[in-house]
Amino acid sequence: MGVRLDPSDEYMHELGPESNFNESMYINCFDPTHQVGGWFRIGNRANEGYAEMTVCLYLPDGKVGFMFKRPNIDNNDAFDAGGLTWTMVKPFEELRIDYVGKVVLLDDPLQMATPKEAFTNNPYAECEVHITFTGQGKPSMFGGEPDEPHETPGEEFAKGHYEQLVEAHGSIRVGDQEWQIAGCGLRDHSWGPRYWQAPWYYRWLTANFGKDLGFMASRVAKKDGPGTRGGFVWDGGKMHYCDHVEVSTEFEGDDTYHQRITGLLKSSRSDREWNFTGEVMNLIPLRNRRQDPEGNWLVTRISEGMTRWTMASGEHQGAVGYGLSEYLDQIIDDKPVGINE
């Protein structure tokens, strides 16, 4: 199966006919010196009349600054909604995000498990984010749009999807505190029909150990079927495509949030493997709900953990990096379905 990725894919795609057509951009970053970072996302759902806009900031004192909005949109012409704007400067090499608005300040980010209470019972602060992200060109890109459909109708999560490790430089201001950002992160861009309820569960891990070493590991489970395992390692200017991923997790608390991670990435093409461990530094749980045709509420939890990673073997053994561990689970009988992975 071939995969296409052109410079034009860095811009907006034609709005599809599907009611749940989604085009989204996501990016994360972390500054290890100031111990501050975050992630940002806009998902355009123009056929449903709104965008999903999220800003999530992990602050040095353990607080999380967070904002989620569903601003009205009627087209898929740009990523510009709810105070968050994306500007593509040069495909595969440079883009910029700008956010001006408020964030709710969470002393205990786990409060976001019940969003209404979290937004009602916590203070707000004015916020500005201006960050430029740079990448190392097309050789550092992973993914694209397959030339044949790869998802079962009704279970689509993205028609096209690609990712890239990036550097980040700019500023984050929350209230009267401001940080100059110099770090690394990962971005992704996807388009096509999407329901958050399509995967049974997934584990999506992103890590940067400086601009010349990082990885993405993905384990997606289907309710019926084996799902997928894959990812990549960017190592010294070379992309290693990984066809096998193993992830084991230690969970904590009555609500079962991930805390410690042990993982393995293997590339049969490169005949190499990379072992790593992760320790979640701060985590915020998010929720998506959708009614099925019978009127039942389907509940999906997406736990976002800013994570400290350590390479556990090989020539990079002992290297320390940072990134996100995103755990999506459908919630059945008040429990995440993927805790036995």
UniProtKB/TrEMBL annotation:
Segments forming domain DUF7064: 195-330
Q: Where is the DUF7065 domain?
A: 11-83, 153-194
Would you tell me the protein name for this molecule?
A: Unannotated protein
**Membrane-crossing residues?**
none
Q: Which InterPro entries match?
A: DUF7064 (IPR055492), DUF7065 (IPR055493)
